[in-house]
Amino acid sequence: MNGNKIISSERLRSLESYELMDSFPESVYDDITRLAAAICNTPVSLIASNQLNEPSINGIVANSRDVTDRKLYLKATEEQNAKLKEIAWTQSHIVRAPVARLMGLINLVREDVLENEEKELMLDNIIKSADEIDAIIKQIVESTASVVNIEKIE
């Protein structure tokens, strides 16, 4: 117990040397903290005072953290997720139609019940569906290139 009083007394003497005791009202220190945060372009996350629960001590504790990088990272992640959802939707819906047509056309050609003119028409439709799939894949590749690289932000 005696050791705690010594530490407390040393701390008290140290604080007295800063002339914080019996000084300006707490709101003045809050204003100073906000001003310093504005000058440094840093958000203030905490303003607290009298952490020692001793009424004779006036002081402030300012704890701030620049969260700009974190916000940029979160925004980039949200943008990336939106783009990836768009790509997934394209793959599951837009690509599915020409693939289903291809499968049906190939089955018709395999059954060997078509006349030559019909086979030519089916082969033309197969090529059209393949070209459509190719165009969709190119669009997906372009969309993928525009996805934000969040590793550069970290």
Notes on the structure:
With 154 residues, the chain is mainly alpha-helical. 69% of the residues lie in helices and 7% in strands. It is built from six helices and two strands; from the N terminus they run ααββαααα. Strands 1-2 form a two-stranded antiparallel ribbon. Helix 3 runs antiparallel to helix 5 and helix 4 runs antiparallel to helix 5. The longest helix has 30 residues, at 116-145. The two termini are 48 Å apart.
Supply database-style keywords.
single chain, 154 residues, mainly alpha, two-stranded antiparallel ribbon, 7% strand, disordered N terminus
Layout: helices, strands, pairs:
Elements: H1 2-17, H2 26-39, E1 44-49, E2 60-64, H3 68-94, H4 96-111, H5 116-145, H6 150-153
Antiparallel strand pairs: 1-2
Helix pairs in contact: 3-5, 4-5
Shape: rod-shaped
Strand order of the largest sheet: 1-2
User: What percent of the residues sit in helical stretches (DSSP H or I)?
Assistant: 55-70%
**Percent in strands:** 5-15%
| Residue runs with pLDDT of under 50 for 5 or more positions | 1-6
How would you characterize the largest beta sheet?
2 strands, antiparallel
Structural class: mainly alpha
**Measured on Cα atoms, how large is the radius of gyration?**
35 Å
Instruction: Output the helix-strand order.
Output: HHEEHHHH
Count every helix, treating DSSP H or I runs of 4 or more residues as helices.
Answer: 6
